[in-house]
């Protein structure tokens, strides 16, 4: 079974530039999550989708971050404009809905200079 | 709100040593508790879970018991191997399919 795919794995940009991350969840998984993991901290939920609807985006900085999940499958997370504090690993995860059993991708590491 | 506090690292051990990583939680209701592990160069993966008080989760020689009276879910392994070197995250789910993670504990096992 293919796992959660993310790209790019690494991205370096300057502040005020924009960046987009892509995620392809495990086939059949209705729930998709984006987490932000800053170095030395645990992952923090940014947004949760159920199919193509947003369930929770309370911790998404909406002035600069946006996410969409078209057709209930792939998802993109965009940051525009980026700030230095956005340097982190962005993790995508998916689940069938089983309580807490998330499957994570390898993450996209963003460095903002 | 829900939160998890886990033992700070890093932790360095010799092979065959006993490992304990402490985890305590704050939550309303009856959460489910998890340990996730992140091996070098890999994504987070579920190690074990417990969904109700006194449940014991186990996998790959690791164990953790859901203790409601002490709001704890400590991870233990009796004899670690070099391949257990990883970052371990304690996590909690309040039933809304969202996980709240601890800060992670880096474990290094020396041969």
Describe it for me?
The complex is a heterodimer of chains A (113) and B (111). Chain A has 113 residues and is an all-beta fold. Helices cover 0% and strands 49% of the residues of chain A. Chain A has no helices and 11 strands. Chain A has strands spanning 5-7, 10-13, 19-24, 31-37, 44-50, 53-56, 65-68, 75-79, 88-95, 103-104, 108-112. In chain A, strands 2, 4, 5, 6, 9, 10 and 11 form a 7-stranded mixed beta sheet that branches. A 4-stranded antiparallel beta sheet of chain A has the order 1-3-8-7, with no helix packed on it. In chain A, strand 9 (88-95) and strand 10 form a beta hairpin. Chain A is globular and about 35 Å long. The relative contact order of chain A is 0.33. The model of chain A has no long low-confidence stretch (mean pLDDT 93). Chain B has 111 residues and is mainly β. In chain B, strands 2, 5, 6, 10, 11 and 12 form a 6-stranded mixed beta sheet that branches. Chain B has a 4-stranded antiparallel beta sheet with strand order 3-9-8-7, with no helix packed on it. In chain B, 0% of the residues lie in helices and 50% in strands. Chain B is globular and about 45 Å long. The mean pLDDT of chain B is 93. At the A-B interface, strand 5, strand 9 and strand 10 of A face strand 6, strand 10 and strand 11 of B.
């Amino acid at each position: 079974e293919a796992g959660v795919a993310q790209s790019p794995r690494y991205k370096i940009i300057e502040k005020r530039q924009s960046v987009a991350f892509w995620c392809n969840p495990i086939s059949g998984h209705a729930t998709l999550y984006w987490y932000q993991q800053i170095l030395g901290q645990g992952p923090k939920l940014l947004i949760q989708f159920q199919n193509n609807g947003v369930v929770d985006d309370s911790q998404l900085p909406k002035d600069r971050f946006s996410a969409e999940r078209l057709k209930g499958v792939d998802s993109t997370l965009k940051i525009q404009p980026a700030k230095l504090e956005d340097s982190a690993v962005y993790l995508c995860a998916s689940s069938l809905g089983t309580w807490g059993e998330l499957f994570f991708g390898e993450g996209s590491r963003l460095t903002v200079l | 709100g829900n939160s998890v506090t886990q033992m700070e690292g890093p932790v360095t051990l010799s092979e065959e040593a006993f490992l304990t990583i402490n985890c305590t939680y704050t939550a309303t209701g009856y959460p489910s508790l998890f340990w996730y592990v992140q091996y070098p160069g890999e994504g987070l993966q579920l190690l074990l879970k417990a969904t109700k008080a006194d449940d014991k989760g186990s996998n790959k020689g690791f164990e953790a018991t859901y203790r409601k009276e002490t709001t704890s879910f400590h991870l233990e392994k009796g004899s670690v191997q070099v391949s257990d070197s990883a970052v371990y995250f304690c996590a909690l789910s309040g039933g809304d399919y969202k996980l709240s993670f601890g800060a992670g504990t880096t474990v290094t096992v020396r041969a």
